[in-house]
Amino acid sequence: MLHLKLKIEKRLERFKCENFLISVVSLIISLVIMGIFIWINTGNFADVVETYKELFTWPFFPELGLVDTILKMIPLALIALGLLVVFKMKVWNIGAEGQLYLGAMATTWGALFLFKNMSNSISMITLLLIFGAIAGALWALIPAILKAFLKLDEIVTTLMLNYIAVYWLNYLIYGPWKDPKGFNFPLTAVFPKNSWLPELGDTGIHIGIIITFILVFVTYFIMYKTHLGFELKIIGDNPKAARYSGISIEKNLIIAMIFSGALAGLAGSIQVLGVQHRLQHGFSTGYGYTAIIVAWLARLNPFSAVIVAFLFGGLLVGGEQLQIVMRFPISMISALQGLILFSLLASEAIFKYRIKITKNDPIKIGGEFNGNT
Amino acid sequence: MKKVFLIVLIISLLTLSITAVAKPLKVAFIYIGPTGDAGWTYAHDQGRIYAEKVLDGKITTTYIESVPEGMESYNTIKSLAKRGYNVIFTTSFGYMDATLMAAQEFPKIHFFHCSGYKTAENMTAYFGRMYQPRFLSGIVAGMMTKSNIIGYVAAHPIPEVIRGINAFALGVKLVNPRAKVKVVWTNTWYDPATEKEAALSLIDAGADVIAQHQDSPAPQQAAQERGVYSIGYNSDMSAFAPKAHLTAPIWNWGVFYVDVLQKIIDGTYKHGNVWLGMKDGVVDLAPFGHMVPENVKTIVEVFKKAIIDGEFDPFQGPIYDQSGNLRVKTGSKLSDEELLSMNWFVDNVEGKIPETSSE
User: Fold this and answer.
1) pLDDT confidence band for B13 (50 / 70 / 90)
2) Least crowded by CB within 10 Å, which of A114, A158, A206, B166?
3) Chain A 320-349, CB below 8 Å of chain B: which residues?
């Protein structure tokens, strides 16, 4: 009897700038697939051209939507920077959204109650940002400890903590923190002007962008220039080897999660201080989840993360414009985002693995499919 | 030579002004949910479509769905302004501050914000007296219930919703003093799963009519599944629950949109605060289901006419609150200010309004 076996194995040869290539190819593939959908939908190829023209111009030109794109880039980039540190050691923090909420809540607490009478704007803002970062870090510390000492799966715990954070926020804005002059609407009072993040000149962009750029370098430094970054990489590549060589997985896990939570908390803090100036629903449009795609698409590289965050910000802004110009439904934009991630994962598999057909080998069963990067 | 030049100038100016007049008004809508929600956003979008049909050639319209509330919406509104839209409708409370900010930045654009209270030279706050048809739907519920427990799935504990619940409960009380209205808060405008859960929990608690202040028809479907009656909201939801749907208080935004857009075209529109009622046609009651008996229809028609003629107001005294205090004396009625800031329940409502801190 002839046995034909499909075996999936890692390619040995590597392409030049493979990671960059994968991202670009998957982007192109998803745009092509989306284009076909649009073509089928409207029956007019000119619509496809018009769609992409709109998608690639409006979000990126100063007089048009550039400011909006940058404002959306800031939280995405900050969260993604934190995420790529934990992702590097293959710990899946899905809880950035919750950590963002905690940061926003702590900042609101500070701005409306603890330091509301502070006269020095700079120290007030610094204090509030630190407050938000600490809250996010503490929220991330819970699943980190649970994983380090009880071996609880962090995907489940971080995800569930998101819901707790959302309900906590609900409790606060419907109850004790509700704006007394807000006609019972679920939102807090507007923060004192002293706590608003200053704008860069007259651009409409707040100083959160400077903080973001500083943190890009900080993250790069941690990941590539410190012992910690080296240990994280080893743990991610081979946890057993890491443990044999005396690296404490628990310690690194906790440090990385704290860093990741702090950046998400900071993003929440910046979002309420820089854009919303009060706490209410809709201050995050799922940035904590979108940032996961950003970190992944950036191949866990801090510099790419900013670029990808910028492009994704553009995608969000462009999506709204497509509704205006092309009258597309919002779901089309979500579909495009999903397509990008999907083709990214698919192209990664295609680039890194190949399928080998072997004959008459009944003893060896199944293939290997473990690890990447 | 000069004369010729002048004539040419005048003619060209004339043609310019004519083309300027003939250019259609660009109208944009910002929606909180998807247009297919069969509720709040759907109702606004029907209004948009209606206006486009009636003012054919004089306006062009567009819309953006599912725009999150808060200041981030400011950039969305601004992008419409940059694209040359002359009239912008923002159709949820949470856009109020962003709309005001945009109105101050673009004084030549007309802004209309739904369900808020802030206005400007070029910004109108508009809403409808939904409590009027809600009262009528309460009459229907009160006459149709057998268990004397009526369930009410409610979104947020804000004056708009509380006012609706009270008007509904007063309608119930008018025809059935023993019936109670049980309220469950969902804390969301649009979340079909949560809305349905809330409706089912009310049915489990004995409710045999389900009313709602939600944007999806999920509570209607829950009622139909369990074989009880329901009262819809926003638009005629009978297609989703033909066996359950008794009627629904509904929005007819088209009437309002056509009116203001025509006035803007004519250059006669004055901004301010407008609160339109049944007599303006902006709010109404959906057609009755086949299970609603004639006597119920007759009573509702009588009160409908009285409300339209201004002879009856759902909030005329005597009205008692939950703790038995007389809130509105016989012979008087609540003012608009009192209605807009209402934060207490009438005596036949079972439910709690979360307290506001006094800070």
Assistant:
1) low
2) A114
3) 320-321, 323-325, 327, 329-331
Contact criterion met (CB < 8 Å) for B93 and A65:
no
pLDDT at B11 over 70: no
Global pTM? 0.83
Q: What is the DSSP string of A123-147?
A: HHHHHHHHHHHHHHHHHHHHHHHHH
Full 3-state SS string of chain B: CHHHHHHHHHHHHHHHHHHHHHCCEEEEEECCCCHHHCCHHHHHHHHHHHHHHHCECCEEEEEECCCCCCCHHHHHHHHHHHCCCCEEEECCHHHHHHHHHHHHHCCCCEEEEECCCCCECCEEEEEECCHHHHHHHHHHHHHHCCCCEEEEEECCCCHHHHHHHHHHHHHHHHHCCCCEEEEEECCCCCCHHHHHHHHHHHHHCCCCEEEEECCCCHHHHHHHHHCCEEECCECCCCCCCCCCEEECEEECHHHHHHHHHHHHHHCCCCCCEEEECHHHCCEEECCCCCCCCHHHHHHHHHHHHHHHCCCCCCCEECEEECCCCEEECECCECCHHHHHCCCCCECCEECCCCCCCCC
Cβ–Cβ below 8 Å for B70 and A280: yes
pLDDT in tens, A220-249: 999 999 999 999 999 999 989 999 988 999
With a cut of 70, say whether residue B50 has pLDDT above it: yes
Query: Above 80 in pLDDT, residue A113?
Result: yes
pLDDT in tens, A285-318: 889 999 998 998 888 899 999 999 999 899 888 8
Mean local confidence (pLDDT), A21-41: 85
Residues 6+ positions from B295 with CB-CB distance below 8 Å = B143
Share of chain A above pLDDT 90, in %: 55
Q: Domain range spanning residue B185?
A: 131-248+286-350
Whether residue A309 contacts residue A77, with contact meaning beta carbons closer than 8 Å, is answered with yes
Phi, psi of B267 (to 5 degrees): 75, 25
CB atoms B71 and A186 under 8 Å:
no
A 10 A CB-CB count for B263 gives 13
What is residue A372's predicted lDDT score, i.e. its pLDDT? 45
Please state the domain extents for chain A: 1-43+330-373, 65-328
Report d(CA A219, CA A211) in Å as an integer: 12
Phi, psi of A228 (to 5 degrees): -55, -50
Whether the per-residue pLDDT at A363 is higher than 60: the answer is no
Are both B220 and B290 inside the same structural domain? yes
B4 lies in some domain: no
Least confident piece of the model among A173-177, A254-258, B3-7, B253-257:
B3-7
Of A175, A329, A331, the CB nearest to B354: A175
Torsions phi, psi for B215 (to 5 deg): -95, -5
Per residue in B220-266, pLDDT (tens digit) is: 999 999 999 999 999 999 999 999 999 999 999 999 999 999 999 99
Sign of CA dihedral A341, A137, A268, B34: positive
Number of domains in chain B: 2
Query: For B85, which residue in chain A has the nearest alpha carbon?
Result: A324
| pLDDT category of residue A371 using cuts at 50, 70 and 90 | very low
Tokens describing residue B241: 């629950």
CATH 2.60.40 fits A65-328, yes or no: no
CATH number of the domain that B185 lies in? 3.40.50.2300
Boundary (domain end) residue, out of B280, B299, B330: B280
Flag if B187 and A170 touch (Cβ within 8 Å).
yes
